[in-house]
Amino acid sequence: MCIIILRLLGVLAIIPLGIIAFKKSGIRHRLLFVVVILLILQALPRVIDIFMPKVSVEAIQKSHETLEAKTLETQSFVDGLPLTDNEKLRKYFEKGQEEEKRAEAISTAIRRGEKEAAKQYAEATLRAIKYYREGLSANPKTSERCALNNLIGIARYSISQLDEAMGAWQESSRLAGELISVEEYSEEGKVALAIAYGNLGLALQTKGNLDSAEVMHLKSLEIAEAMDLKEGIAIQYGNLGNVHYTRGELDKAEVLYLKAIEINENLNKKKAMASLYSDIGTVYQTRGDLDYAEEMYRKALVISEELNDMEIMSSFYGNLGTVFRIRGDLREAEEMFKKALEISKELGSKLGAANQYGNLGNVYFTRGDLDHAEEMYNKALEINKSLDRKVGMAIQYGNLANVHEMRGDTEFAEEMYLKALKINMELGRKEGIANQYSNLGVVYQIRGELDHAEEMYLKALKINKGIGRMEGMASAYGNLGNVYITRGDLDNAEEMILKSLEINVTLGRKEGIANQYSNLASINRTRGDLIRTEEYYRKALLLFSEIGAEPQIQKVIELLKEIGAQP
């Protein structure tokens, strides 16, 4: 940077010298003027670099994760660039395409978690942008300028330069408007405008501006429907589905995803169908419809197996594992997570392996196998640290804190929860923030700081309600019930626990149902109703036995003995 600044100062110092040389007569002065101009031209590209947007390797890695997590699909508009009779322009276009192909080949390595790959991807993409920009200076036609700006926008978007991408797509939409005004190019201009609007919607969605994103996607959809552009219609249905899902409007998201699937099925676009089935599965899982979620994930898995796409197969096995874990079917969950882990290892995907180590840790934690759980969480943490992947680090800090909390080390647990909370706040990750508030509440409750615990649980509940996360709401209600039991406020406790129980029954979460049966037993024991106490303990014991939660099984057995009942 210091060198570049010195170059800038040098350029500023040379300019007056050049002016003096130009004003003086004589061959020596004119030669001096030429030398000055050459020096300026040599320094100028490096000077311009100061003002160009920088590329963050971490942003590129995060961008690739985001694109994998949801179906975010930009649309390309190349017009007649491959066959243009403008030879100079065609060469720039072809060179740009070569660099984009090079970047695409590197993208698999990014998903494997190779840091150097993200840097190489950025370098190749920036070269592609350079060639497309040079194409703009090769006297292209309006339609060709429109296409080049679209390509520049897509390249900028892929390296997370969102403002620059939007600038390029806005210029593309302006040029598309010019084409529409000329009858001969009207249809071509409408296609380009629909694509530009859709791509602008994606950039706005990525920036978190959902209302403006929705406007752009609807504009794109309107044009696509008027022209019967099936692929464009399907893409915009999917994009709008993502907008509504992010807002927590699950019913609207479901309808749009299903519409997109129907069109893609007619177009035989199987990879898009697989991604959309997974998106709908996520909707059902968030809503608590685990049977439907499983059905959608299995449909996605079948398609990925037909395509022999190992990378997305691994993701779908992981999704199925999560469904089984929520249900309390730990054996099936472990099997799915191990399949996903095996594929991730075969592909050399560090990110995939980290996710599955964490998932397996959750299975072992539920079983009460804390040493094995800790081993898995530490493996996941080490990989996430090596990738500098903040969200993964936050999740594993929280998981390791759970282990230490179960062992009674609340000080270390609190330290880890606060680390996780800080990262989640920096990332704006609401689900993670809610989880850590809930976890901190448990620590404070163990210490007897009930007011502090209640405050944390209420914060967690508010966030989970806001994002429509039923599992988190059930947990918060149950935790609040425990606080009220400890205070002796049994009526409020029962109200909270029954709310939690209702949600857990809807979700089919055996562990959650069992926990609330155990809580109801505690309430009835305090009230002196030992018949109902025993009834609830036995219901809890049955469910804990079904999922193999050994610590909870032993705890309930001891509680039954305390009231004089045979286990």
Polypeptide structure, described:
This is MalT-like TPR region domain-containing protein. TPR repeats lie at residues 234-267, 274-307, 314-347, 354-387, 434-467, 474-507. Pfam families: TPR_10, TPR_12, TPR_MalT. With 567 residues, the chain is mostly helical. Among the domains are: 389-505, Serine Threonine Protein Phosphatase 5, Tetratricopeptide repeat, CATH 1.25.40.10; 509-566, no CATH class. It is 84% helix and 0% strand. The protein has 26 helices and no strands. It has helices at residues 2-23, 27-49, 57-69, 87-111, 115-136, 142-158, 162-180, 186-206, 210-227, 230-247, 250-267, 270-287, 290-307, 310-327, 330-347, 350-367, 370-386, 390-406, 410-427, 430-446, 450-467, 470-487, 490-507, 510-527, 530-547, 550-562. Helix 12 packs antiparallel against helix 13 (290-307), helix 22 runs parallel beside helix 24 and helix 23 packs antiparallel against helix 24. The radius of gyration is 29 Å and the shape is elongated. It starts with a helix and ends in a 5-residue tail after the last helix. The model is unreliable at 1-11, 32-52 and 63-71 (pLDDT under 50).
CATH fold field value of one domain: Serine Threonine Protein Phosphatase 5, Tetratricopeptide repeat
Overall average pLDDT:
87
Gap from first CA to last CA: 73 Å
Strand content: under 5%
The CATH architecture designation of one domain is Alpha Horseshoe
Q: For the record, what is the CATH homologous superfamily label of one domain?
A: Tetratricopeptide repeat domain
Q: Helix/strand/pairing class, anyone? A: mainly alpha
Pfam family, one: TPR_10
Protein name: MalT-like TPR region domain-containing protein
Keywords: Membrane, Repeat, TPR repeat, Transmembrane, Transmembrane helix
